[in-house]
Amino acid sequence: MNQDYEHITPLQFEQAVFRYTARYGQHPETEQKYREAINACRSIDYISLTLTEVARMYGLKPEPFRNQLKRHYPEILRTRTELRARLGIRESGNFGLKDQTVRQYAEAVELLRDPSVTVREAASRTGVSYQGLQQHLVFYHKDVADARMLVRSDALMKPLTVGGFTAVGGIHAPKPEAARLYEPAVEMYRTTDLPKTEIARRCGVPVHNFESYLSRWYKPLMEQRRERQRLQREEKQRAPKEVRSKVVLARMKYEPAVALIASGKTLSEAARELGVPLYNLSPWLKAHYPALLDQAQAGQMRLPSGRLVLRKAYNKYLPIAEYIDAHPAEPTREVAARWGVPLSSLGKKMASYFPEIWKKHCLTLNTNAHE
């Protein structure tokens, strides 16, 4: 804390550091600054002096002093002007509101009688200066300014609602371009139970922006949708559930494979079409349809190691194995090129189908390499 405020109470410190001002109206410091000059304007003793002379008498600038009278004491200006006219004191210069200024701001003033129209919007629509319109409204249409101020003060004390007035002027509503952009998505959200992500994807809008738009402008709609979905869940939970055993469920899951295999499809093709694992389908067929499983595996053969392989693939690599057995010293790459098979596939298939021949081939190549 600053040393200047060490020996004062917290309340005195708060009053010394912070300045509290009203939202509208005249500040206390301003009223005190112009108090003596304003009282002089009320007195008949200074009626012969102009406002400029009164301001300079008290060390004030004439233009801010005149604006202070226009804004907060218009009755003093009116009474003083009428009294000077009766006394025959001629005003020097051109005072008062000009007819040209009245015509210039007339349309904007009429627009501002609607509290939903802001001063900036009225100035933009009528093509006049924003600052000039603001001063004209405050100085010469105090009734309109007070009415607008009353609406804003009332809005400040109430919760902010969609379609209602705001404390800074205007209606609390989405911008027209945003409303047009999100209108299809909001309608789909209102009439369907699709997720917000799917609605945003179909309408071509960012999902996070759509969620923010809904939470800001359509909270009642979101609550209605949540309540409807809650009722649907409760109704679904109250509905009787059909109890089925694991055997029945497995039969319903794997039974269509019987017709597929009977139509000529292989075991793997049937499993792929049904979307079930092959290692689950085979045991089930073996337990319930062993003859059908044998039919599905007719194109397979069992190696001495016990592994099932396709007979077609075995027959393809059988002559290659006989060639390697007769020429064990020929490099593997040349063998693959001679028979037109991939080098990686040749090694894997030979190691699986003919492990003794492949082992003899590898040992021969390694011996030749060391020699």
How would you describe the overall organization of this protein?
There is one protein chain. The chain is mainly alpha-helical. It folds into 5 domains: 12-86, no CATH class; 99-157, no CATH class; 176-236, no CATH class; 248-298, no CATH class; 308-370. Helix content is 68%, strand content 2%. The protein has a two-stranded antiparallel sheet with strand order 1-2. Strand 1 (300-302) and strand 2 form a beta hairpin. Helix 6 packs across helix 7 (119-126) and helix 10 (176-191) crosses helix 11 (196-203). The longest helix is centred in the middle third of the chain and has 20 residues, at 219-238. It is elongated, with a radius of gyration of 47 Å. The two termini are 93 Å apart.
Helices, strands, pairings?
Elements: H1 10-17, H2 28-42, H3 51-57, H4 62-72, H5 74-86, H6 99-112, H7 119-126, H8 130-140, H9 142-157, H10 176-191, H11 196-203, H12 207-217, H13 219-238, H14 246-254, H15 256-262, H16 267-274, H17 278-288, H18 290-296, E1 300-302, E2 308-310, H19 311-326, H20 332-339, H21 343-353, H22 355-370
Antiparallel strand pairs: 1-2
